[in-house]
Design a protein that fits this description.
The protein is mainly α. It is 64% helix and 5% strand. Strands 2-3-4-1-5 form a five-stranded parallel β-sheet, with helices on both faces. The protein is elongated.
Length: 762
């Protein structure tokens, strides 16, 4: 028995306790199997258990290495040496083993069988049915109903502790950030953001990244840790870079030391299991390695192999890959490869004739999934789509050359659409930008999919408030579509609508209106009256008229858009919620509060149900309902909604976004109405500064902020501060909205009241 064991054994306390419990549960023979993939530490756990429980097993601990020779001979040899037993020589080997078990000394006995591959080969030598005999096997396989402890990789903290024990603590704690990694955001891994990790030094972060890179596999961590201990001038950062560059071929992963329990390096340990697979099993393992290092829905695997019998695939998965712990079952229908096994199988894939076919097949399947991602996602749809997202990303980032020209756009835009629909604009922007760049490189500057990519990115920039970046992209997309498709094409109508929307955001109403009207007319001509794109144009034109104070023109368009969306989408859809919200906003502005409130409440409840609590549409509904309550002097109901809306917008959109400025302004107005002036003033100032920065000096939202700050100073009788602000606001309103717009009229009234009060004090 290898009694020395690892002197640096960490992170398995729960497993040791569970193992002892398993071995004590049966009245007769208790057989507990420590099962797991190669390198996970099965033998080490068995050894540490034997050492820990040496006194408990007073009748002896017999350790048999199954690969070291015949188990029966090892048991007999143990009995002769340690128990002075001499089996009769005329007995066969099984008889001699039984002789030994029958005359074994008193006390609890533990038989350890290390690295069992075929249960039938060791079964004849197992001890008799007696509660004092315990049998512990380590194996890479499943053995039917035998109680089993499945050993997983280490938790991040335990992995770090193991590495710290192998490498001097000071070497990790005092490691500086190397210049090559400074400012590169190298520690953004989601695996390093787990609870309980706390504040980390640079050395600890590098060490954690090393552990993560090794998939928290004990053998990998021990090999790399011992290698670093021998190479004192080798930095953690350089070790990490070597692993990234060479993977399983990095020499540290194969250089085991004599005092290690493990007998093989990582790759050699994996080879043992690989050699047991047949061709079908190997092909399946290699196909799985093409998926991202994330949970894999089994239906996607089956889709990649439409000509292979589903039951045959299932047998390879369950009887071989799972049985040998080369694959993990995460939950029903979801499986995952360990990252190092994934690398191992990827290397094996290169030698298979089907490698190219597998890559193209995976690309086709993931493109098909990407095409089915809707523009607007409910929580239910997000749950359905989410498992495929990392695999679509894997195709886009590493297999794009195997995607056809026709599918290129979808491979790159699928994830962007997924994040955009949730209001996760920063993540979406990365994908849309990549889509524009790659489609241009592959398809050339003048291609319909390039125009669509430009359009998507421009719309996203508009929602982020990045108007100066959005406008030239919109113009390019519209011009390209007109050139390639002609005037009467749906994509042209879409570009007209989106460019108009950008101008609307910028309050360039005279430029937006003719584009909206053209888009609506073209959609009606091409699609008929009952189409969702027509409903969208009706809604957008209504928003424009509302913003211009053209209320009699806006109301019927709002109503038509809502009715059309309800008819085409049903009652429960995010677009229906937006139409409810917009019509509620219209009624609220007309002081028709009893009509507005139920629409707002429906919109908020529907958005929460369909989109979850953290979505820009939910923030919009919270803000608008709060504004309604404010108008009705229902202040205790308004305040928490304003605060929630502001916090949600900051979280989702960042500090610098026009919607954040709106929430700051509204909350400031609430505080002013409550006489909470010290809380109101900084919010008004922040809102004004933010609007100026994002929208420029001439935007109506800037005028609104100027008017509101002036109103605040007026309430403080700071007339000298208020008057120039009113004048600036009135000038912008008159020039941008016209003298008859409600905002212009109201600002003029505010200025008149101020001047009257100033005159009365003279």
């Amino acid at each position: 028995m290898p009694w020395s064991g690892a002197t640096k054994f960490v992170g398995r306390e729960k497993e040791l306790a569970h193992l002892h419990q398993l071995l004590q549960e049966n009245d007769s023979v208790a057989i507990a199997a420590v099962a797991g993939m190669g390198g996970v530490g099965k033998t080490e756990l068995a050894l540490q258990y034997a050492l820990l429980q040496r006194e408990f097993y007073s009748g002896g601990i017999c350790w048999c290495g199954v690969k070291s020779g015949d188990v029966g001979l090892q048991i007999v040899q143990f009995a002769r040496i340690h128990l002075d037993l001499n089996p009769l020589t005329d007995l066969d080997l099984i008889g001699q083993v039984k002789y030994c078990w029958q005359r074994w000394g008193e006390g609890e006995v533990l038989l350890v069988l290390d690295d069992v591959t075929i249960y039938k080969e060791i079964q004849p030598y197992l001890p008799p049915s007696s509660s004092r005999f315990k049998v512990l096997m380590t194996t890479r396989k499943h053995f039917g109903k035998i109680p089993k402890l499945s050993l997983d990789v280490l938790e991040p903290q335990a992995a770090l502790d193991l590495l710290r024990n192998l490498v001097r603590k000071e070497r990790i704690d005092l490691t500086p950030l190397p210049p090559s990694l400074q400012g590169k955001g190298e520690f953004d891994s989601p695996l390093l953001a787990g609870e309980g990790l706390g504040e980390r030094s640079i050395g600890e972060l590098l060490a954690l990244q090393l552990c993560e890179r090794l998939g928290y596999l004990p053998l990998g961590i021990e090999l790399v840790g011992r290698y670093l201990a021998r190479k004192e001038d080798l930095s953690l950062a350089e070790m990490l870079q070597r692993l990234e560059k060479k993977g399983l071929n990095e020499r540290s992963l194969s250089q085991r030391e004599d005092d290690m329990t493990a007998q093989l390096g990582v790759q050699a340990a994996f080879e043992l299991s690989w050699d047991e697979l047949n061709d079908t099993d190997k092909q399946l393992a290699c196909l799985l390695s093409l998926f991202a290092a994330a949970p894999i829905p089994w239906e996607l695997v089956e889709s990649c192999l439409p000509d292979v019998d589903a039951e045959e695939l299932e047998e390879s998965r369950d009887d071989m890959l799972l049985n040998l712990h080369l694959l993990q079952r995460k939950e029903r229908g979801i499986y995952q490869l360990h990252p190092l096994l994934r690398e191992f199988f990827q290397a094996k894939l290169q030698g298979l004739d089907v490698a190219e076919e597998f890559k193209r097949s995976l690309c086709r399947i993931m493109v098909a999934v990407a095409k089915d991602i809707p523009d607007s996602l409910t929580l239910e749809q997000i749950t359905i789509v989410s498992p495929a997202i990392p695999h679509i990303a894997e195709v886009a980032n590493h297999l794009i050359e195997y995607v056809s020209d026709d599918d290129l756009y979808w491979a790159l835009t699928g994830n962007g659409q997924f994040y955009n629909a949730q209001g996760l604009y920063d993540k979406a922007a990365l994908w849309y930008e990549q889509c524009v760049k790659t489609t241009k490189q592959r398809l050339g500057e003048e291609h319909p999919n390039v125009a669509t990519s430009l359009n998507n990115l421009a719309v996203l920039y508009s929602y982020q408030g990045r108007y100066s970046e959005a406008e030239p992209l919109h113009i390019q997309a519209l011009a390209l579509r007109r050139k390639l498709l002609g005037e009467e094409y749906l994509e042209v109508a879409v570009s007209l609508n989106n460019l108009a929307l950008l101008y609307y955001f910028q309050s360039k109403y005279s430029e937006a209106e003719p584009l909206y009207i053209q888009a609506l007319a073209l959609k009606r001509k091409l699609l008929g009256e009952e189409h969702l794109d027509v409903a969208l144009s009706l809604n957008n034109l209504a928003e424009l008229y509302y913003s211009q104070g053209r209320y009699s023109e806006a109301e019927p368009l709002y109503i038509q858009a809502l009715a059309l969306r309800r008819k085409l989408l049903g009652e429960e859809h995010p677009h229906v919620a937006l139409s409810l919200n917009n019509l509620g906003k219209f009624y609220s502005s007309q002081s028709r509060y009893s009509e507005a409130e139920p629409l707002y409440i429906q919109a908020l409840a529907l958005s929460r149900k369909l989109l979850g609590e953290e979505h820009p549409d939910v923030a919009l509904s919270l803000n608008n309902l709060a504004l309604l309550y404010y108008f009705q002097s229902r202040y205790s109901e308004a305040e928490p909604l304003y605060i929630q809306a502001l916090a949600l917008r900051r979280k989702l959109l960042g500090e610098e976004h026009p919607d954040v400025a709106v929430s700051l302004n509204n909350l400031a107005g609430f505080y002013r109405s409550q006489g909470r002036y010290s809380e109101a003033e900084p919010l008004y100032i922040q809102a004004l500064a933010l609007n100026r920065k994002l929208l420029g000096e001439e935007h109506p939202h800037v005028a609104v902020s100027l008017n509101n700050l002036a109103k605040f100073y007026y309430s403080q009788t700071s007339y000298s501060k208020a008057e120039p602000l009113y004048l600036q606001a009135l000038d912008i309103f008159e020039r941008r909205l016209g003298v008859n717009h409600p905002h212009t009229v109201k600002c003029g009234e505010n200025l008149a009241i101020l001047r009257a009060d100033m005159a009365s004090q003279q």
